[in-house]
Amino acid sequence: MSLLKYESSLREPLVDGDKNYHQVSEDICRPIEIKPGRLWYLGFGIALALLLFGVYSVYREVTYGIGQWNENRTIGWAWDITNFVWWVGIGHAGTLISAILLLFRQGWRTGVNRAAEAMTIFAVMCAGQFPIWHMGRVWIAFFVMPYPNTRGPVWVNFNSPLLWDVFAISTYFTVSLLFWYSGLLPDLALLRDRARTKFRKMFYGVTSFGWSGSTKHWQRFEALALVLAGLSAPLVLSVHTIVSMDFATSVIPGWHTQIFPPYFVAGAIFSGFAMVQTLLIITRKVLHLEEYVTIGHIEAMNKVIVMTGSIVGCAYLTELFIAWYSGNPYEYAAFYKYRIAGPYVWAYWTMMTCNVVSPQLFWSAKLRRNIQFTFIMSVVVNIGMWFERFVIIVTSLARDYLPSSWSTFYRPTIWEVGFFIGTLGLFFTCYFLFAKYFPVIAVAEIKSVLKTSGENYKQGMGSMEAESPEAFVHEHVAHAH
Amino acid sequence: MAIKKFVVGNFDDENVLFPAVKRVRTAGYKIHDVYTPFAVHGLDHALGLRQTSLHTAGFIYGITGTTTALTGISWIFDVDWIMNIGGKPHIPLPAMIPITFELTVLFAAVGMVYTFCWLCQMAPGVKKHVFNPRSTDDIFTMVIECTEHTNVEEVRAFLKTVGAADINVQEAEAGWWWGTYDKEQVLYKEELV
After folding, report:
1. CB under 8 Å to A394, separation ≥6 — which residues?
2. How far apart are the C-alpha atoms of A366 and A358, rounded to whole Å?
3. What is the pLDDT of residues A377-402, one digit of tens each?
4. What is the span of the domain harbouring residue B143?
5. In this structure, are B62 and B36 located in the same domain?
6. Position A279 in a domain
7. Given an 8 Å threshold on Cβ–Cβ distance, is A189 in contact with B136?
8. Same structural domain for residues B45 and B136?
9. Spatial contact of A190 and A59, defined as CB atoms under 8 Å apart
10. Are B42 and A1 an interchain contact pair (Cβ–Cβ within 8 Å)?
11. Residues on chain B touching A161 (C-beta within 8 angstroms)
12. A202 CB near a chain B CB, below 8 Å?
């Protein structure tokens, strides 16, 4: 077994400090078992207040109609769908970390996957609100589901990307939830077995489903995780591809573009990783988990940000090039008259600065490993990605083929903004509850990499590297059989 | 549902556990289970467990989803309510790809998780006997089932020689039952044979 425990000392440790298995459980379970601090109550209170404001905004929208929002002809999709795409995009990082990095055997995912997956679920919950309430008569929202009905039967149109979206988002939510929860079971069982209070014994007893840690169960658990990862990897790519098709399959200049699917997926991962950074930098500090979410983890995510940010930048430039090269006057106008210039010029250049220019600073290793800088950048990136969706949706809709249907400057109402703020509230309310009642780091997974990647264990590997290969094989392989 | 007698050996290092599993099996004792705090790779082979067929189940659920989507959409468009959408083909395969893919993934994932819970006998509110509460923390717990022929003292001594740090004997329910962990369960106790 010793052979499997070897890892090059050139790789940074994934867990800092002198840890053993029990210490890992202690460190990660401690925040759950003590009373939350004042900061938690403050944060939770603010999140709840924002959520309530959102609930009131939605109440106004349902009671008085979509007129509560300042959408018009032709800007029928505006803040609302911008926010939808923004939230869906944010969700993507969680699945990417948990699924694609699992398939690529990236050890550093163990420190961040649990929080990132939780973030995915909450982000998709927020995203789902927008198309649902945008329907206006929300009490018949279930008409989007195909089922035998007494209205003909009138079926949904399976050729429509909007219907694909219904399937994509609901599948994505379900699969992410199952993946996250099945991974949580061993850790909930740990909390159950540690529980001293009646409430925790009952709560974790019910939620851990009677997990025992049996070898056969672990074998099935690993098989399940691997297949779910294999299913989620194409799923996460498909979801934002389908979201981009909401735009790309229409014939609106600036939307009718084949580059959209890869460009949207890259943008989604870009903004998602930024949101993971925002959340984890605060979480690790407040819950004292700096030894599990190390600078190395933050740097690894910053590398993903600089890569996906560059892909997004490349896509922006490609769009501009093709708008000119295609010779299509409408495409040309959409980009050169109404994006890089025109009434929304501020939105376009905010997007360009936040998404293309600023992530390039992460080429510097010093900045990648700077926590304050990373935190600021993570917020900047998400502002930039919000503007990207705003630019795509609003600039294209504001200038249609017919000048007679050109609309005036679009400005959201307070209830429209309130709805968005409400989803921020929903997101953070959920995240605060998650951080209080669930382990924010996958305990069992950290334990499985501890002896290869823990700092104290890695120190012992120097002697192994000094050995000759023959002596190494003799000592560690021959004896294993 | 049966109350049985078990000899429980607790190990604090997985590197001691592996040779111990091998020696216990060679000696002919029946290992009821080994409870570990995380997935110890290779332990399933050491215990002689066969590979799980959960993947196959996942594949079957997946193709069920594919078939459901393809037949469902075709039936709706071409049998139940025939629609002519801009003179386009009646079975628009490319337009069916997204939903077919999503349903494949959905069926496979949901089916597999249900099967996983079914096979492992897990559900909200299921209770199982915990041989060592620290086996979800840092202890590797090997549980040996006793029969009427088992010499308990001999098993204890043997476990000591293979490196168990702590050994005890427990009479426990081997299966699962509905209950919560916040109260002690009074179970119907069978006479040990």
Report:
1. A75, A78, A82, A344, A347, A410
2. 15
3. 999 999 999 999 999 999 988 888 88
4. 3-50+123-178
5. no
6. yes
7. yes
8. yes
9. no
10. yes
11. 98
12. yes
